[in-house]
Design goal:
248 residues; alpha/beta; 6-stranded mixed beta sheet; 6 strands; 39% helix; 14% strand
């Protein structure tokens, strides 16, 4: 029987972006809005983010052949695309999948938690009542919506890349929602992991195929939020959320 899952799967959050930096500045100033000039899809990496991506690429390049990806999938957002390329993926070999894009925030886009409370108090209250897993801001997505599209993406990966070594470069919520799906978690379990801390920029979440995991084998977690490659290369470790804390 053909192997359903990749032999190895790495999920990497993009490097620090200029949006991450702008968000921190807005939160510190208690501003309502995050000042960026670009669409979220166009926000580039910061200088630190570029250094992080290069450091992670060097770490992968130093690994044995069986510990390096042969397929690279990425969110089409600029910060994810830049990360993958700076890690050493030739642009022609990079496979974009819009299902790996950032969670969409709708009317809460570019708002800090102060801005959400001030400009959309009903949404702030609704989110507190429903929780981030189920709350869908107008024009945006809940975590469940992200999970729905990621179910489809995992089916595609299983269909086309069974037995391959696959690297995914995406976003914080995508990393968490993929863990939820691959490991068969509950809402409470994945939110408990989320509360432990943000997914670090250019951190690695790694799975290996285990033939004994389930009737057709499965992926078993090896590492989560692994930042040793950055530390070894002397690159800064950052872990800013991609979006307003009240909306993430």
């Amino acid at each position: 029987m053909q192997q359903r899952w990749p032999e190895r799967l790495w999920i990497v959050r993009h490097g620090e972006s200029r949006g991450n930096v702008a968000r921190d500045a807005a939160q510190a100033a208690r501003s309502h809005r995050i000042e960026t000039l670009d669409r979220d899809v166009d926000v580039p990496l910061s200088d630190r983010g570029e250094a992080q991506a290069r450091a992670l690429g060097r770490w992968f390049a130093d690994q044995p052949g069986e510990e390096r990806p042969d397929v690279v999938l990425a969110s089409p957002y600029r910060r994810a695309r830049q990360t993958a390329v700076l890690m050493g993926t030739p642009p022609a070999d990079l496979i974009f999948d819009e299902r790996l894009r950032e969670k969409e925030f709708g009317i809460l886009d570019r708002l800090t938690r102060y801005g959400i409370e001030a400009e959309h108090p009903q949404q702030a209250e609704l989110r507190r009542a429903l929780g981030k897993f189920y709350h869908r801001p107008p024009g945006g997505e809940s975590w469940c919506d992200v999970i729905l599209r990621l179910r489809s993406a995992l089916d595609t990966i299983s269909l086309h890349y069974g037995g391959a070594r696959v690297l995914i470069v995406a976003h914080q919520v995508v990393v968490l929602c993929l863990r939820y799906l691959i490991e068969g978690m509950t809402e409470e379990q994945i939110l408990a992991i989320d509360r432990e801390g943000d997914v670090a920029n250019c951190s690695v979440t790694a799975y290996a195929h285990d033939p004994s995991a389930g009737p057709r084998g499965g992926l078993v977690l090896q590492r989560y939020n692994f930042v040793a490659p950055l530390l070894e290369e002397g690159a800064p470790v950052t872990a800013e959320p991609d979006a307003p804390m009240a909306a993430r």
